[in-house]
Design a protein that fits this description.
heterodimer, A: alpha/beta, D-Maltodextrin-Binding Protein, domain 2, MetI-like fold, 3 domains, ten-stranded mixed sheet, 18 helices, about 60% helix, B: about 240 residues, alpha/beta, Rossmann fold, four-stranded antiparallel sheet, binds adenosine-5'-triphosphate, binds magnesium ion
Chain lengths: ~475, ~240
């Protein structure tokens, strides 16, 4: 279902006017795991993760362009793409065409064997059975340079290690970083690496601004060990630290690499969106409810009444996720706009319809006799409304608005669909790093719960105050 | 002063009032009686245009109110007292009374407060001036409602069963206030099921049935010598009034 929607929306997007200035285009060739490869119909990988960081840093949306490796340089040269990231090694020849960033990967491919193996150096792998990850650097390298080894291509590195454990293969070749995490006490890594490789990204010659930005992002990532982490993630490996008991898992989910910052950022955005949305909702809901009431009582404002009726019908009759996607992918598609603001607008427009109902219900809860007494005293509709009806209905409306705010706090979690980093998305990000969903999900569940319980308590207090005020 | 000509009122296809003709002179105190559902309330509500008549005229001081679109202006001249009091629950007694004259800028706030206090004093209600409606007894509420109407200086006051929501011991305080108004020459239309009260209080009584006024006579005559069959049945059913 979600896919169908996305397709419909992308047709909208294609036909709608598109401006590119909020996009950052990275050019790659997706077929080089773990740096860039397809997962389903999505291109993912270490390079893509880094490119995403660059785009985030620039506040732009990353667009991944998949071309043949040989065309990457020309794409960048002609400006069809902003930069290239495809596990590209520095060569003199290439550096005449484009500018290279600093290296973000110094990849060493190492050989792992069992302790009792008779292989002691890299030459020893000839004629042996070797497990690699399908489509990885090791796969490519061994296929080209070691014609006489028998390659067992596994989908995951872990499976390759399992093969070695079970003595199904004689050795495993993989990147040094995961290797060091994966080997058991019964295994060893051969002292010389099979191959070293360094990768940089490329930009159009003279585009020093982007070059420096990418360099800065790479440096930051290196300092936080985040590139290693990307690498481990894409190899389907948890870092060893992460599996050490409850406390260790908690540490990884929250403290390691300052991951709590995602949660704080998510919390901030969740509250900001809920608050902004409820304010917009109150504005729209009031206009809608009052215009309906004016029309019903005086026959004026027919157009506004019709619009607001249609608005309430449409919003209440369609899923909020869909509304969010339409607002993001269709309406704000071509605008360079802050995601939190998109969230505030989308949820605000959504909430307005419900607030309209809240106000309508609040008004109709007031006894007809109050209207009649007001009219009988010579007051006009607007005076009766302002001086008699609204002040009394506020008592019912305020607590209901509080509940609407609570609903919004929870509802904002669907903002994750369009990539708003609110609480749910924050937990998802952390979980995608640690491969452990328990703590991220439990922590944000607890946060939602604490917020909603506190808010409910506040609403109860408010309700009691309002009831006592006149009693 | 108030002339109702051929007034009809339909709800959907149901004819409730079917040609009402009534002349009200200044100082008249007219009782309106009739079986439940015969349209007594509807008649009062049409007079102050809370219900819009289907046809006919309501002429007050020469103006046909039905044609005049400024219902809010004409309503100032016509007070209305409801069975359920309809005090504004969020306002205290004083605020209830002064709301309309101040909002309509008929008098300054100070002036309104002065007038309200004066009126409340006359019926010994100044103690409850700052109380909210839910702290008042039914009798107090209805008297406040009457004062809220009086401060507008209406030419006529419509009462729709003003005492039927009251405990028996409180009826007296409300009818006493109404008597004072009557003795001061206020024109009133009073719907009531209390035949004893109607008989002693009103100088004229109309009997409403089948959407029309079946009898319109002095109260003494009407009760002592009813002519219409329906009125006879009605009075005998109500019994020892
Ligand atoms: N807003 C309305 N819509 C439809 N029918 C109505 C409406 N108001 C009153 N009626 C009907 O009109 C008829 C007269 O009602 P009304 O309240 O005037 O009677 P009443 O003589 O005051 O009765 P009661 O003695 O019970 O107060 C009733 O049959 C009632 O159901
Ligand atoms: Mg009635």
């Amino acid at each position: 279902m979600k896919k169908v929607l996305l397709i419909v929306l992308s047709i909208f997007m294609l036909t709608g006017c598109s401006s590119k200035h909020n996009e950052l285009i990275v050019v790659t060739e997706a077929g080089f795991a773990p740096y860039e490869y397809y997962e389903g119909n999505k291109i993912v990988g270490v390079d893509i993760d880094i490119a995403k960081k660059v785009a985030d840093y620039l506040g732009k949306k990353l667009v991944v362009k998949d071309v043949a490796f040989d065309s990457i340089i020309s794409e960048v040269k002609t400006g069809k793409g902003d930069f290239g990231a495809a596990g590209i090694s520095y060569t003199e020849e290439r550096s005449k065409e484009v500018d290279f960033t600093i290296n973000y990967i110094d990849s060493k491919q190492v050989v792992i064997v069992n302790n009792n193996s008779d292989i002691y150096n890299t030459e020893g792998i000839n004629n042996k059975k070797i497990a690699v990850q399908l489509g990885s650097v090791a796969d490519t390298y061994l296929t080209e340079n070691y014609k006489d080894v028998e390659l067992i291509r596994e989908k995951k590195f872990l499976a390759a290690i399992e093969d070695l454990k079970d003595n199904k293969v004689d050795a495993v070749v993989m990147d040094e970083i995961p290797a060091s995490k994966l080997i058991t006490d019964n295994m060893r890594i051969l002292p010389n690496e099979l191959l070293t490789d360094s990768y940089g990204m490329i930009v159009k010659k003279g585009n020093t601004e982007l070059l420096e930005t990418i360099n800065k992002v790479i440096n930051d990532l290196k300092n936080n060990n985040e590139i290693d982490e990307f690498l481990l993630n894409h190899m389907g490996i948890k870092s060893k630290k992460e599996s050490s008991g409850i406390l260790g898992k908690f540490y990884d989910s929250v403290i390691y690499n300052a991951r709590y910052k995602y949660i704080l950022e998510g919390l901030k955005n969740t509250l900001l969106i809920a608050l902004g949305a409820v304010l917009i909702g109150i504005l729209l809901g009031t206009i809608s409810a009052i215009s309906n009431n004016i029309y019903e009582n005086t026959g004026k404002l027919k157009i506004l009444h019709l619009i607001s009726k249609a608005y309430v019908t449409v919003i209440r009759g369609t899923p909020s996720t869909l509304q969010l996607m339409i607002i993001y992918y269709v309406i704000f598609r071509s605008m360079d706009i802050n995601m939190v603001l998109v969230g505030i607008m989308a949820f605000g427009i959504n909430s307005g319809a419900y607030v309209s109902e809240i106000i309508r219900a609040g008004i109709s809860s007031i006894d007809k006799g109050q209207w009649e007494a007001g009219y009988a005293l010579g007051l006009k509709y607007s005076q009766v409304m302002k001086k008699i009806i609204l002040p009394q209905s506020i008592r019912n409306i305020l607590p209901a608005l509080g509940n609407e705010f609570i609903t919004l706090v929870k509802e904002t979690s669907i903002g994750a669909y369009i990539g708003i980093i609110e609480l749910t998305k924050a937990s998802d990000i952390i979980a995608s790093r640690t491969y452990d969903y328990f703590f991220p999900l439990m922590i944000i569940a607890l946060i939602y719960l604490v917020i909603t319980v506190i808010l409910s308590k506040l609403i109860n207090v408010l309700e009691r105050r309002l009831n006592n005020a006149r009693n | 002063m108030l002339e109702i000509k051929n007034l009809t009122k339909k709800f959907d296809n149901k004819v409730v009032l079917n040609g009402i003709n009534l002349n009200v002179n200044k100082g008249d105190v007219i009782g309106i009686i009739g079986p439940s559902g015969c349209g007594k309330s509807t008649l009062l509500r049409c007079i102050n245009l809370i219900e819009i008549p289907t046809s006919g005229e309501i002429v007050l001081d020469g103006d046909n109110l039905v044609d005049n679109k400024k219902h809010n202006i004409t309503r100032r001249k016509i007070g209305m007292v409801f069975q359920q009091f309809n005090l504004f629950n969020h306002l205290n007694v004083l605020e209830n009374i002064i709301l309309s004259p101040v909002a309509l800028k008929l008098m300054s706030k100070d002036e309104a407060i002065r007038r309200a206090t004066e009126l409340l004093k006359k019926i010994d209600l100044e103690d409850i001036m700052y109380s909210y409606p839910n702290r008042l007894s039914g009798g107090q509420k209805q008297r406040v409602a009457i004062i809220r109407t009086l401060i507008m200086n209406p030419e006529i006051i419509l009462f729709d069963e003003p005492t039927s929501a009251l405990d028996p011991e409180m009826i007296g305080e409300v009818t006493n206030l109404m008597r004072k108004l009557r003795d001061n020459g206020m024109t009133m239309l009073v719907v009531s099921h209390e035949m004893n009260f109607v008989k002693s209080f009103c100088n004229r009584v109309i009997f409403l049935s089948d959407g029309i006024i079946k009898e319109d006579r002095s109260s003494k005559e009407l009760f002592e010598n009813p002519k219409d069959d329906k009125l006879k049945t009605f009075l005998s059913k109500i019994g020892n009034y």
